C-alpha cells in the first residue's frame, strides 16, 4: 500500500491510500505542463509573504533561489518525480524542501492548492493563448495573401452542394479568414507580479469558477467549426469530380494498395479534430453544471481538456496554414465549371431592373430554365423570341446577363463578391493584421 509520508494532507489520516485510488487521484501526468507557471506563482507569493512579515528577507531569498533551481531542473529535463507527487504543486514543493530544507514549508502559509491551481492555469492559458493567437493570425495572413493574389479567379458558389452562382475564389477564401481570436496576503501585489489585469472580486468564486476555461474551449470549438467547414470544402474541391484545387504532396498521403491515390489526410484530420475539441468543451460543461460552490476535485478534469485542446489547436492552425500556402488552384477547371443556368438569378434581376416585382421575375426566370431544360439547350441559348413568350420585358440587352464577370460585379455591397467589395474585405483584414502587430 502507498505510504502517506510526505503528503501535504497526511496528518489527519491513518493508514495508506489504496494504490488504485492513488493513481486515480493523481494529475501529475498532465498538469506537469504547469511547472513553469507554478514556479512563477510561488515566487510571486513568496514576495507577498515577505511583504506581509511572514517571511524574512533571507527566507524569501532562500525560497526564490530554490525555486530557480527547481525551474532549472524542469527546463533541463532532470527533475525526478516521486510516487507521492499527486500534482505539480506537491512535486515542486517536495523538491524545494529537498533543496532548501524546512524553510520550504513556509511557502504554503495561507495558500491552498485550490488557489495555486487556478492561478497556474490562468497564467498558463494566458501564455498559451498568446501563442495560439500568433498562429491564428499567421493563418489569416496566409489566407488574405492568397485572396489578394487570386481575386480575379471565378468559380461556382454552392448551396446544398448544388452550383448556385458565380463567385470569386478570393471571396470564398475570405469567408474563412476571420474565425475569432482568443483573448484577450497582498493580492494587488500578486496581481502586479503576475501581470494580471485585475484581481477576482470574490475568493469563493476565484477558486471554483472556470469561465475562463470554458471561454477558451468555446473559442476553440468555434474556430474548429470554421476550419472544419473549410477543410470539407477543400476536400470536395480536390476530388476528381471537382478538380478545382490540388493539395501539395507535403500535406497529402498515398494508398498502400492503390498507387494512383493522393489522399487529403491533412484536411480530413483537421475536420476530425473538431469532434475532439467539441467533446472536450461539452465534457467540461457537463462537469461544471452539477458542482456545488467553491472548489471540488471534479475541477481537476479542466486541465486535461485545456492541454489537449491547446495542443490540437496549435497543430491544426499550423497545418491549415501550410495547406493554404501551398494549395494549387486549377483556374481552367474552375472556369469550365461555370454554366449559364447559374445566371438564372441574374436573369430575374434583369427583369427587376425593368420594373417587374421580384417574385414575378423569379417565376419568369424559372420558366426560362424549364424551357431550356425541355428543349435540351443551355439557358443562354434561348432566343429572344422564346424569352419574350415568357415576358415582353426581355429585349436585346438581355445578352449582357450571360457574362460571368458582369454577374459577380453586380454584388458590390460590402461583403459581396464584386472586385471592389473583395478589395474592401482584403483591406479590412489587412487593417486587423496591422492592429494586431501594433
Automatic annotation (TrEMBL):
<comment type="subunit">
    <text>Homotetramer. Forms tissue-specific complexes with ASS1, SLC7A1, HSP90AA1 and nitric oxide synthase NOS1, NOS2 or NOS3; the complex maintenance is independent of ASL catalytic function.</text>
</comment>
<dbReference type="InterPro" id="IPR024083">
    <property type="entry name" value="Fumarase/histidase_N"/>
</dbReference>
<dbReference type="Pfam" id="PF14698">
    <property type="entry name" value="ASL_C2"/>
</dbReference>
<dbReference type="Pfam" id="PF00206">
    <property type="entry name" value="Lyase_1"/>
</dbReference>
<feature type="domain" description="Argininosuccinate lyase C-terminal">
    <location>
        <begin position="342"/>
        <end position="409"/>
    </location>
</feature>
<dbReference type="InterPro" id="IPR008948">
    <property type="entry name" value="L-Aspartase-like"/>
</dbReference>
<dbReference type="InterPro" id="IPR022761">
    <property type="entry name" value="Fumarate_lyase_N"/>
</dbReference>
<keyword id="KW-0835">Urea cycle</keyword>
<protein>
    <recommendedName>
        <fullName>Argininosuccinate lyase</fullName>
    </recommendedName>
</protein>
<dbReference type="InterPro" id="IPR029419">
    <property type="entry name" value="Arg_succ_lyase_C"/>
</dbReference>
<comment type="similarity">
    <text>Belongs to the lyase 1 family. Argininosuccinate lyase subfamily.</text>
</comment>
<dbReference type="InterPro" id="IPR009049">
    <property type="entry name" value="Argininosuccinate_lyase"/>
</dbReference>
<dbReference type="InterPro" id="IPR020557">
    <property type="entry name" value="Fumarate_lyase_CS"/>
</dbReference>
<feature type="domain" description="Fumarate lyase N-terminal">
    <location>
        <begin position="11"/>
        <end position="174"/>
    </location>
</feature>
<dbReference type="InterPro" id="IPR000362">
    <property type="entry name" value="Fumarate_lyase_fam"/>
</dbReference>
<comment type="function">
    <text>Catalyzes the reversible cleavage of L-argininosuccinate to fumarate and L-arginine, an intermediate step reaction in the urea cycle mostly providing for hepatic nitrogen detoxification into excretable urea as well as de novo L-arginine synthesis in nonhepatic tissues. Essential regulator of intracellular and extracellular L-arginine pools.</text>
</comment>
<comment type="pathway">
    <text>Amino-acid biosynthesis; L-arginine biosynthesis.</text>
</comment>
<comment type="pathway">
    <text>Nitrogen metabolism; urea cycle; L-arginine and fumarate from (N(omega)-L-arginino)succinate: step 1/1.</text>
</comment>
